[in-house]
Amino acid sequence: MDNTSQILERSAELFSGQRLLLVNPPADGLTRSLSADWTLWCWDYASSRGLAGALPEERLVFSHLCPQVDDLDAAILVMPKAIERAEYALAQMVPLLAQGKPVYLVGEKKGGITRAEKLLGRYGAHPEKLDSARHCQLWRVIVDQPVAPFLLEDWRQQYELRFDDQPLQLVSLPGVFSHGRLDEGSELLLAEQRPLPAGRVLDFGCGSGVLSLVMARRNPGCRFELVDIDALAIYCARQSLALNGVEAEVHASDGLSDVHGRFSAVISNPPFHTGIRQDTSIAERFFEQVTRNLQPGGELRIVANGFLRYPPLIEEHIGPCQVLRENNRFKVYSAVAPG
Ligand SMILES: C[S@@+](CC[C@H](N)C(=O)[O-])C[C@H]1O[C@@H](n2cnc3c(N)ncnc32)[C@H](O)[C@@H]1O
Known about the structure:
This protein is of the alpha/beta class and 339 residues long. It is built from eleven helices and 16 strands. The strands form three sheets. A seven-stranded mixed beta sheet has the order 3-2-1-4-5-7-6, sandwiched between helices. The protein is elongated, with a radius of gyration of 21 Å. The structure holds S-adenosylmethionine (SAM). S-adenosylmethionine binds at residues 177-178, 183, 186, 205-207, 210-211, 227-230, 233, 253-255, 269, 271, 274, 282. Monomer. One of its GO terms (cellular component) is cytoplasm. GO terms for molecular function: 16S rRNA (guanine(1207)-N(2))-methyltransferase activity; nucleic acid binding.
């Protein structure tokens, strides 16, 4: 069981038999081992898939929005890696609690739980640390003031990006990659204007959808399919596409778990760290598996930090790897699947 779940289990007397909202849970057995009336809100599709079957479907919600649960005894947030995501989640959770009810925050010391006092102090006068174990802390505050209802518009950012050939409207939410700006790596990938092979194009780890949006206008013969693990990214990508009048399919996937069929091209600025530690395993798994989704002669076009040793992996699984563009930080790679 995850360390955060173990520390919650140690305080089982606080939670047993209660009506609880658990937000951003890891995919483990906590809801089975700690008997309570659970509702779970996940924005991570891997956790949501991992927890499927642990609870009735309506008690496990994968969304950018918190499920509306009545008569809660308490709400628990497992600290996300981005502090602004924690603020976004608490702003939705706390209005569901009556005054006098507790909200808990649990997380790893290396993962920002040290900010708990400040985060919880907005909702009650006395945030307190209840436990510290397994490199984690458990905090609580009793909600002691009226809290404004959550309005998505207050958190949703809409901004314009200007490319040589087009302006673009993008929508973003807290914790979505490159919130409110264009990532330097994505910018380099988009500076490469050579056409993509016509047909179905997969945008892996789409974030707010910037790669597909720009490339869809440049490649009218392509149909784009966007996937991401993050429910907030999926919402933002759908909104961005609609705002710019671009038609494309957007859905959740953990890696290529929910990607079916073959594509004439796959584009990506692949994730290379998750959580607190630097980690390239998602990208490595992606290179290994993407061959199944590339048509013969299909192109993989990605951008990555120049120091990441991706070319040997790309060559092992797909084919000769060409550098299309580079600057002092990033490289744009292209590889074509054997025809
Ligand atoms: C470097 S960002 C790129 C976002 C966007 N394409 C851009 O260029 O701005 C990588 C994206 O991959 C997503 N991601 C992380 N792990 C993933 C996984 N296992 N499966 C699918 N997407 C994942 C993240 O949520 C993030 O949106």
